[in-house]
Structure formats: C-alpha cells, structure tokens
Amino acid sequence: MDDEAEAIPVDFNEHTATQAVQDGFGKTPDPRLHEILTALTRHLHDFVRETRPSIQEWEQAIQFLTAVGQTCTDTRQEFVLLSDVLGVSMLVETLNEREGGTESTVLGPFHMVDSPPRALGDSIDLVGEAEPCVVSGRVLDTDGAPLPDAKVDVWQCNEQGFYDVQQPGVQPSGNGRGLFHTDTEGRFRFRTVVPSHYPIPTDGPVGRLLEATGRHPYRPAHIHFIVQADGHTPLTTHVFVAGSPYLDSDAVFAVKQSLVVDFTESDDEEEAARHAVQAPFRHAEFDLVLNREPTR
Ligand code: BEZ
Ligand code: FE
C-alpha cells in the first residue's frame, strides 16, 4: 500500500489552517525563503483570526491592494507609498542601520537616477525667485577623517513644495537636483532655496487610506542626500529644516532628531558675497558621516 492511500486528511479549520499552509511550504529549498514564508503564514493567519473579516471586508481588502498595484506606473510606486505610510519602509531602514555614521532615512519616490553633475558652489535652484540658501559641510568617516571625492547626490522640492518632476513645463528639469564631489578636505557646498513642507501624493488609494483614517499627508521640509565614497557603505538620508511644520508628525515617519538642522538667517553682506548670494540668505552647515564597509 502506498503512503497516499493511508494518509488521513486533516480538516482545514481555524486551528489546523496555519500548520497546513506551513507544511505546504515545507519543501522550499531556499532556507531564507522558507523562514520568511513560515513567519508570514503565522502572522497573516493570526491577523485574520484576531480581526475575523467578513467575506465583504476581505473582498474590499483585495480591491484596495488591486488598486494600489493598478496605480503603479514607471514613475509612480504606490506600493512603496503604502509601505511608507504604514511605517514599514522606516522600520526596514532602521533595522538595517549600523551605529556610528549619520542616521539614514527613506529614499522616497522623487530620486532621479542621473542627477545633473554640478561643480562645488553651484546653485541647484535654476529659477532664482526665492530667498537664497547656502548648504555646506563635510563628508567624514567615523573617525572624523575627511572623505575626498565622495559623491553627494542631492534633491529637494522648491519653496512651494513641488519637485521638478511634479511640475514639468513649470520648473526646469533638474531644478532642485545636483550631483557633487567633495574636495580634498571632504567639503561640499551648494546654493539652493529653503524647501517647503509638502504632501505626499494623495490622488490614489494610499491617499484614500489617509483620508479614511483622518491622517494628514504632509512631510516636513527636507533635503534628500545619497552619499557614496569608496570603501564605505552608501548613506541615504535627509536633512530636515528646524522649525518646519510636521516635524513631529511626518506622514512617512522618517524624522530622526539627529537629522534636524538649523537653516540660520543671515543679513551679513560680506558673508553673502563670499557665498555668491544676495543678503539676506539662509545657511545650513552639517557633516555627513559614512560607516566603513563591513569586512567579510
Ligand atoms: C519624499 O520625501 O520625497 C517622499 C518620501 C516618502 C513618500 C513620499 C515622498
Ligand atoms: Fe522629499
């Protein structure tokens, strides 16, 4: 007699369901995939047993996830936005962070793979209608040694809260963006405008989720950075503008106190001339610290 004929099927019920599905994944050859699917099944089933959705509610949940997928295009990633507003993006970021360097935070959807290369001191503000702002500092290793020729990729929205890609034909392409290389002392500097706080995209299912739950969609004012140097772990982070609205209620939970920086107002004409801006202007100065790449 073969085993199949002797096996007595176990009824699929509330108590046997989890083991049955986990057994189904029992032959997964990749141990990490097996670990993840086993845990996913346990947590998902516990969630369903706890919340006991009606058939209609489960259909609604599937419809919501379908709409999230259907909203994704080459330039819009609604699943990332969902992960962001659920705090999962930041949780993954935080769990992967190493001690020592500047804290990291979410990448967000507005990064351009090919930022326009610019020389140190250049302006990333291609419009020139708002109060100028100078951003400067150093890229260092965790011992405080400068990292020359580090790549500093920056992007930000304008003073009205829009990225260039959100306003084609209104803002020049590449406005608010630049790829810089630090000098021999690890220094970077560029001119810009102080970015505004702004709402994440709300015209899709994630926006409807925020609306249904009484949550606002705003992010506090910030400048994005990706910093890279040979032998060091790349850093994806923001610098937040001290005093901005929503620092204590970021829609994507990305604020860390260590990343909040003063954008100090100055009306010193001489200092303004040294930075090639008109007074009054704002100045933010901070260092970005990279961890050494882990040795295998
Ligand atoms: C951003 O800062 O660009 C961003 C981050 C997460 C969601 C939406 C926007
Ligand atoms: Fe942003």
Describe the structure.
This protein is α/β, with parallel strands linked by helices and 296 residues long. It has helices at residues 3-6, 17-24, 31-51, 55-71, 78-85, 88-95, 205-212, 269-274, and strands spanning 132-141, 151-155, 177-181, 187-193, 198-199, 218-219, 222-228, 235-241, 260-261, 264-266, 281-285, 288-290. The strands form three sheets. Strands 1, 4, 10, 11 and 12 form a five-stranded mixed β-sheet that branches. A hairpin with a 6-residue loop joins strand 7 (222-228) and strand 8 (235-241). Helix 2 (17-24) runs antiparallel to helix 3 (31-51). The radius of gyration is 24 Å and the shape is elongated. The chain starts with a helix and ends in a 6-residue tail after the last strand. The chain binds benzoic acid (BEZ) and fe (iii) ion.
